[in-house]
Amino acid sequence: MKLHLKVWRxxxxxxxxxxxxxxxxxVTPDMxxxxxxxxxxxxxxAQGKPTIAFDHDCREGICGSCSMMINGRAHGPTRxxxxxTYMRNFTDxxxxxxEPWRARAFPVMCDLVVDRSAFDRIQQAGGYVSxxxxxxxxxxxxxxxxxxxxxxxxxxxxxxCGACVAACKNASAMLFVAAKVSHLGLLPQGQPERSRRVLAxxxxxxxxxxxxxxxxxxxxxxxxxxxxxxxxxxxxxDQIGSTLIPAE
Amino acid sequence: MQLESRAPTGPLAEKWxxxxxxxxxxxxxxxxxxxxxxxxxxxxxxxxAASLAELxxxxxxxxxxxxxxxxxxxxxxxGINAAKNYRNDGDSVERLFLDTIKGGDYRSREANxxxxxxxxxxxxDQCVAQGVPFAREYxxxxxxxxxxxxxxxxxxxxRGQTGQQLLLGAYSSLNxxxxxxxxxxxxxxEMLDLVMVNGVARGIIVRDMVTxxxxxxSGDAVVLATGGYGPVFYLSTNAKGCNVTATFRAYRRGxxxxxxCFTQIHPTCIPVTGDYQSKxxxxxxxxxxxxxxWVPKTPADKRRPDAIPEGERDYFLERKYPSYxxxxxxxxxxxxxxxxxxxGLGVGDGGRGVYLDFADAIRRLGEPTIRxxxxxxxxxxxxxxxxxxxxxxxxxxPAVHYCMGGLWVDYRLMSNIPGLFVLGEANxxxxxxxxxxxxxxxxxxxxxYFVAPYTITDYLAGVKPGAGTDLPxxxxxxxKVGGIMKRLQDARGKTSAQVFHRELGKxxxxxxxxxxxxxxxxxxxxxxxDIRERFWKDVSVPATAGGMNQGLEYAGRVADLIDFxxxxxxxxxxxxxxxxxxxxxxxxxxxxxxxxxxxxxSFVSAWQNGGEGNAPVLHREHLKxxxxxxxxxxxx
Lengths: 248, 636
Ligand SMILES: Cc1cc2nc3c(=O)[nH]c(=O)nc-3n(C[C@H](O)[C@H](O)[C@H](O)COP(=O)(O)OP(=O)(O)OC[C@H]3O[C@@H](n4cnc5c(N)ncnc54)[C@H](O)[C@@H]3O)c2cc1C
Ligand code: SF4
Ligand code: FES
Hints:
The complex is a heterodimer of chains A (248) and B (636). Chain A is of the alpha+beta class and 248 residues long. Chain A folds into two domains: 2-110, Beta-grasp domain (Ubiquitin-like (UB roll)); 117-243, Alpha-helical ferredoxin (Fumarate Reductase Iron-sulfur Protein, Chain B, domain 2), CATH 1.10.1060. Chain A has eight helices and seven strands. In chain A, the strands form two sheets. Chain A has a five-stranded mixed β-sheet. Among the domains of chain B are: 266-400, Alpha-Beta Complex (Flavocytochrome C3, Chain A, domain 1), CATH 3.90.700; 472-600, Fumarate reductase/succinate dehydrogenase flavoprotein-like, C-terminal domain (Methane Monooxygenase Hydroxylase, Chain G, domain 1). In chain B, the strands form five sheets. Chain B has a five-stranded parallel β-sheet with strand order 5-2-1-9-17. The longest helix of chain B is centred in the last third of the chain and has 25 residues, at 550-574. Chains A and B meet through helix 1, helix 2 and helix 3 of A and helix 3, helix 5, helix 6, helix 11 and helix 12 of B. FE2/S2 (inorganic) cluster (FES) binds next to loops of chain A. Residues 39-45, 62-65, 71-73, 75-80, 162-163, 190-191, 225-227, 237-238, 243, 245-246, 282, 284, 401-402, 424-426, 438-441, 444 of chain B line the site of flavin-adenine dinucleotide.
């Protein structure tokens, strides 16, 4: 297979950036999208040119590093991460446009690499149970109904990739924050700080410059872990409930 | 050099308590005068950094990813062991200890392994308290599954994403400390050297991977929790960024590298498909709870798997190891798969694969149960191979997965360099020659939550806080790091580091993989200098306009992997026995099992850098078995 790539190149945060055209030959259906880019990067190296920078690590869909807009869709044509996108989903001679996530809260650092540290800061604002190491009671002291545990796990699966933000026309981080808030909110361990957590995390999200949610559901459509937008409704209820109850 | 394990004397069950009583404390008001540098934010580093900060120390953490949450612990699938005996199936601290010692083929320290089994219980409690969503039963109690090398069910899990959830737990504790200002996080920073002042670890040199700036950081103790060196084989289940750089550069500064030849090959991975392939994907060992492994009885049988009748299939693990069956330990299962493929019985293109078949389990339990247990793993398999494992058996083949070897540490997890602590997969400590499934997560968290906070405190109690970076030792290390990067860029060659990496990895896999021999290792040792020479002449590392330069980062790691491969091969050559994952073809029993040699090799090999151009120097820590009697490991 032969592909024509239009790749976003940007030397640094201050650089204006532009598309660069490349052709990659010898692409096979079993190759992952990132392996196809490896081939291109090796070609660039042989010519003494700087490689295309992109974030990646586990290459198995779990670390959440990889993050590319492929033909206008976050993580490409199939459900799953960029690293788990296989070339069997492209056709010979196709033109593929590759861009970084675009969002005010995710500034581009270099080529396809963006700064997602805003996600870390949202979690620092309250995405934890305040418990120190040592002295925890026996794990079975606190029974958790199976259904709650499963639902908490559905939310906890979020890999923090940011595709939800990239896909949203408002660059809203609601799906990500809702997943985080719901994971702990569904478990007994998360109850004492439930109100404080949701208020702090939502406030931080706004402060970081993410947009509002206008129920477009683009986030849910691209989320590689199929996080349900129902968690957003759940968080909204939590938030309203928390503003009505005076702070602890 | 005399290697002192510093393991306390006395009865096994009392050693750790005794050690805790003997260790010194630091007064709460003084703790904030100390600064600890923690490199690595996986289970080991993340848990250690959070726990130290909770105690009141100032901590700086470093990782090469863009967030601490992305450390490779995130990829662990199957579960974490703990001797809770919630099943009432006869588990206990003693049994977990014995299973781990035996699983490691009697090449680990008794005292360490016992402590690991003891604190395993606290780990589960701690993680539950943090809100880790472990699988539950209908009564709300914690659920368990079985893993290889054990006859009890002691593995706790979060679907197929246990590592992710445990890491997010540690990361949440870390975040709480970051918010409180006691931890400073430095993501996208790569450690490139260890700084020693008067023979003591005092700091590190890192490169800011965004700006390209070289930075100095000083601390009163340095913790390396930088994971394993699997990528020395190029293809492995490790993340692309996993590297040996942090530990190897510490080795160059005098830290001893222990048992590098003990590398684990995991039996259940998706087979290799093409030359461009950049990594291998693990299919969790938990699948062996319900999947049955088989190959056709006749070589080169091209029939579809469902067209091969029962009588013409060889369920070789069930046949050879009836009491453990498909749950035989990893080293044994991997070798059995290799033997079957070597005999021409392998399946799939190229014949390097065996079936992992769920048809019986689906018939017995129904598809929904299998989906609930392994849904995400089946999905991942289908994504990668384009085949539906609910309908056709998975094809699997062994792949490099875990490194038992690592920097040498004593019982207190301190290396031979005072002030340098090594945690998690980066040390060599608890798994001997082979690790049991679900025990790495346990060890990482044991080290970070429950061991290092005590032992680092004891160390700090004896040092005066505050050194600063304005010392000639920092300047020297910084210049050295700059020199390596300049040399890489000045090569101005035509070949990418990946090409050299792939060549190195293929050679290490072929000559020092699932089986090794004197001849293959000598061949490998002859070939490495040649790769090294070509690498430095022909590697291409272009300058970039901005500070970010992924080509430069990668080339530096490959350079270290090439040098490290020499230490690994030397270790494999010197250990003239077969034990655990180290299978020397010359040393096997009549039926092809590993022939261990306790009389001559019951020791830890700890390698000291011999200096530029010289072979590494071997030091031995002899293993004393006071409580268990090493026996022939049998899973029959
Ligand atoms: C696919 C897979 C599945 C697994 N499944 C299981 C399982 O089910 N059960 C089990 O018990 N074990 C499992 N393991 C093993 C286990 O996950 C690892 O051994 C363990 O998580 C290692 O943790 P760690 O904290 O030591 O290192 P890691 O999690 O690898 O963390 C290393 C850290 O060091 C940092 N680092 C590395 N080098 C540098 C440098 N030079 N400069 C700065 N930072 C650096 C990284 O950024 C990272 O933060 C699995 C492993 C793999 C690969
Ligand atoms: S919610 Fe989904 S898309 Fe958003 S960060 Fe999490 S995993 Fe990625
Ligand atoms: S590289 Fe880890 S999710 Fe894609």
